[in-house]
Amino acid sequence: MARYRLRFHLQEVDLRHGITYIGRSEECEVTIEDPLVSRRHARILFEGDNVILEDLGSRNGVRVNGSPVQTAQSLVDGDRVRIGTQDFVFCRVQQRAVERHSKTTGVLRLCGQCKAPYAREMISCPNCGTAEQADEETLSGAFGPVSQYAWSIQLLMEALEKALGLDRLADADRILRRATALLEERLASGEKVQPVQLAPLALAAERICNATGAVTWGIWLSEFCVRAEIFPPAAVSDRLAALRLRHSELSEPIERLLAYCRGVDGSPEREDREAIVRLTRDHRGAGDRNLQLATPKPN
Fold first, then answer.
1. N or C: the chain end with fewer CB closer than 10 Å?
2. φ, ψ for residue 135 (rounded to 5)?
């Protein structure tokens, strides 16, 4: 009789006949300590030779081979199942191939530093060595591209947009921290950051800065564009222009950004160039107004 197994980083789990629950709860047969996983996220029903995957109304959904699972879906050998930040491979194995160390339950832990999943039995993350775990809170969002980095950043971007839409600025700030950490890691590794990934961050930065009066995110956004050698998309420049009109502390970071843009070779998109022109104009106008306000009136 055929046997079925879920294969993932460092671990394999044999599927038993009946129901296997997957989620963040310790009560699940496969527990994933990942903030993007619901407490009871999905289940796999194994009857006869049929294996069916169901999404249990999770916030972030389930995908098979990149496509969302709407209700229930039969699995076939080689299917890739994405839950949270983890990619499982569904495998059909023969009885003789079942290894003695295979398990019928398993727990994954998400590294709080590099976001890589690893077996909970391990003391620290095998990828970066840290013992820090990700937060327990479940985030909202949707699923994106295939690569681990691209998918993770896309998921956080969509979660960020949802938090802003609900006016949950504390949640948006927390998600923004995670997203910017991923971008910083990407940059530190020598990889390129796509300019389009900054647009949702710019909206969040403007909302949070205006709500709190702190300009930390506006400064980060300006400086990251320079460090990542990104000619800012129009959405970013326009958000920075709006922030500059209200926050004089952004004067120097934006001046450095404009200096970088003036030295960029090539041909940025027309709308991006026009947005930089608007940012330059608004930046200088804000400086003139600040100067006027600081000049004492004659007696």
1. C
2. -60, 155
Contact between 242 and 228 under an 8 Å Cβ cutoff? The reply is: no
CA angle 210–215–221, rounded 5-degree value: 110
Token pair listed for 90: 């569904």
Picking from 241, 223, 233, 229, the residue whose alpha carbon sits closest to that of residue 197 is: 233
131-177: per-residue pLDDT in tens? 555 444 333 333 333 345 666 676 677 778 778 888 888 888 888 88
Cα dihedral across residues 3, 86, 155, 213: positive or negative: positive
Sheet holding 30-33, edge to edge: 72-74, 50-55, 42-47, 18-23, 30-33, 106-110, 117-119
Span between the terminal Cα atoms of the chain, in Å: 98
pLDDT digits (tens, 9 = 90+) for 239-277: 999 998 888 888 999 999 999 998 887 777 888 989 999
For the record, the structure tokens of 251 come out as 């004067």
CB atoms within 10 A of CB 286: 20
Instruction: Assess contact for 155 and 36: CB atoms under 8 A.
Output: yes
DSSP 207-218: HHHHHHS--HHH
Report CA Rg, the chain. Answer: 24
